[in-house]
Amino acid sequence: MTDADQDDLMEEGRRLFAGPVAFQLSAPRLEILPPADLPEVAFAGRSNVGKSSLLNALTGRNGLARTSNTPGRTQELNLFLVGEPPVLRLVDMPGYGYAEAPKDMVKQWARLVNDYLRGRATLKRVLVLVDSRHGLKPVDREIMTLLDKAAVSYQIVLTKADKIKPTALAAVTADVAEEARKHPAAHPLLIPTSSETKAGIAELRAAVAGAAFA
Ligand code: GDP
């Protein structure tokens, strides 16, 4: 991508999230999602990774996405419509990897992905959130492999980048990127972000616009 293309995408991302964003509905696991009539970008990550904060920063709306008090308990897909009329749906997936038995969470996740996301032609990308301080955990790798198998395109977003020094952030970014390159469905570029400082949020908006409309 040229710099001019990236500039265009940044502008498209900015415009996309400058308009209205509205909660659409919570879909419990075994219920039917609304018709696949819009491009969708989904957000996934371990509980407490900073997913709600990132969704709020992305959309510029505090309180749009709320954390459940009991991590790992929320088993709904929360759907948000971007634009009026809507042009994009954001899908907030339940956090994984909280339970002592991560295998169970992965199994639940596998079911979710298989029931809802696999074969949903409008799902353009899953953003897999990873805490900058921790890098990839075994459960993240399992999720990545699962998305590889489902052939769902995904991209890793590092969260809470403000919590570590720039040198440490550069190191974790390089390590995770190297590992992502070995995964067939993973996007090669990572996006380091901070919901606190808003670093990387404009890039994230551009990535969402690119994934949804390119
Ligand atoms: P979720 O469970 O993945 O939805 O995580 P939350 O968005 O609720 O965030 C979990 C905790 O991390 C909260 O205490 C947030 O305030 C904190 N947090 C989230 N994002 C950031 C960030 O970018 N920087 C810092 N310093 N803290 C963050």
> Helices and strands, in N-to-C order?
HEEHEEHEHEHEH
Q: Supply the number of structural domains.
A: 1
What is the residue-averaged pLDDT? Answer: 89
Strand-residue fraction? 15-25%
* Continuous helix count: 6
Q: Separation of termini?
A: 12 Å
Q: Give the biggest sheet.
A: 7 strands, mixed
Structural class: alpha/beta
Q: What's the architecture in CATH terms?
A: 3-Layer(aba) Sandwich
CATH topology: Rossmann fold
Keywords:
214 residues, alpha/beta, Rossmann fold, seven-stranded mixed beta sheet, 38% helix, binds guanosine-5'-diphosphate
Give an account of the 3D structure.
A hairpin with a 5-residue loop joins strand 3 and strand 4. The chain has a seven-stranded mixed β-sheet with strand order 1-3-4-2-5-6-7, sandwiched between helices. The longest helix is centred in the N-terminal third of the chain and has 16 residues. 38% of the residues lie in helices and 20% in strands. The radius of gyration is 16 Å and the shape is globular. The model has no long low-confidence stretch (mean pLDDT 89). The protein is an alpha/beta fold. It has one domain: Rossmann fold. The protein contains six helices and seven strands. The site of guanosine-5'-diphosphate has 18 residues, from helix 2.
